[in-house]
Amino acid sequence: MTQKVAVLGTGKIGEALLSGMIRAGWAPTDLLVTARRPERAEELRARHGVTPVTNAEAAKTADTLILTVKPQDMGTLLTELAPHVPTDRLVISGAAGIPTSFLEERLAQGIPVVRVMTNTPALVDEAMSVISAGSHATAGHLAHAEEIFGAVGKTLRVPESQQDACTALSGSGPAYFFYLVEAMTDAGILLGLPRDKAHDLIVQSAIGAAIMLRDSGEHPVKLRENVTSPAGTTINAIRELENHGVRAALIAALEAARDRSRELASGSS
Predict the structure, then answer these.
(1) Which residues contact 245 (CB under 8 A, 6 or more apart)?
(2) Which residues of 244-257 are buried (b: 16+ CB within 10 A; e: fewer)?
(3) 268 pLDDT above the threshold of 70
(4) Mean pLDDT of 154-168
(5) In angstroms, rounded to a whole number, what is the distance separating the alpha carbons of residues 6 and 85?
(6) What angle do CA 117, 120, 121 make, to 5 degrees?
(7) Rounded CA gap, 246 and 226, in Å?
(8) CB of 97 closer than 8 Å to CB of 74
(9) What is the mean pLDDT of residues 115-144?
(10) Which residue spans within the chain are E strands per DSSP?
(11) What is the mean pLDDT of residues 22-28?
(12) Residue 228: how many CA atoms within 13 Å on its side-chain side?
């Protein structure tokens, strides 16, 4: 890889991205990082061989800038970057809820911006990264973003109008599964199992179910029906889930996450 890529505001997801890029063939010498704390920057240098720089230096030097700061910090970062970003740079935003127009309005006219919503499974190279083009981004810019984020999982292109929905489903999605596993573990303890055994049973069941969903080509309804015998244990459990409105609660939860993403885009705290 000959292009220089800078990750700005390098936290856990940013570091996971760096690590994946290096495994995918990027030379550490072509990767720049910025961090709020100097000791964090030095930690990244020691661990990955990347080069710590200031935000201004990253803007002047890197061909691609990946902004991984929190949504509420994006405006301050763009104010700092704007005087230093040439028009031939690609800017990738990973901030939830922030539209590409927010960046385009604060950077020089014509700078291409791509919006990406990834998730924490990037830490284990199983991310779902959703990619959308800003008004000046080309197919080539999207392909470059896919190359970068493909190093830590799967990518999917969507119109930017669908980003808030994708944030609700996949950006926040891992938390819902962790919540479900937590609840099922508590249920296992209530049923008399030790916590460690309940955890192992549930996690392996989750892994197996996810692989079946991914690889079988079957609809989830069909896969569920295959486990659900007449008058059996599973249908009794499903009846209780329906009686307690779990399906409706999930739909409402996802709508709430989507709405919060829209609030972030509008500048609501």
Answers:
(1) none
(2) eeeeeeeeeebeeb
(3) no
(4) 96
(5) 12
(6) 110
(7) 21
(8) no
(9) 97
(10) 5-8, 31-34, 51-52, 64-67, 90-93, 113-117, 127-133, 153-157
(11) 95
(12) 11
> Residue 1 has what pLDDT?
46
Predicted local confidence at residue 264, as pLDDT: 80
Question: Is the pLDDT score of 269 beyond 70?
Answer: no
pLDDT class of 117 with cuts at 50, 70, 90: very high
Distances 26 to 20, 53, 58, 241 between C-alpha atoms, Å: 9, 18, 17, 47
CA distance 210 to 215: 9
The pLDDT value given to residue 241: 97
Phi-psi category of residue 168: left, alpha or beta, with phi > 0 → left and psi -120 to 50 → alpha: alpha
In angstroms, the Cα distances linking 181 to 29, 178, 188, 221 are: 40, 5, 10, 20
Distance CA 266, CA 102 (A): 10
Report how far apart, in Å, the C-alpha atoms of 175 and of each of 38, 120, 123, 180, 184 are. Answer: 30, 9, 14, 9, 14
**For the chain, percent of residues with pLDDT exceeding 90:** 93
Reading the block at residue 111, the tokens are 């700078």
> Rounded to 5 degrees, what angle do the CA atoms 35, 149, 90 make?
70
How far, in Å, CA of 228 to CA of 38, rounded? 56
Tell me if 123 sits within 8 A of 18, measured CB to CB. Answer: no
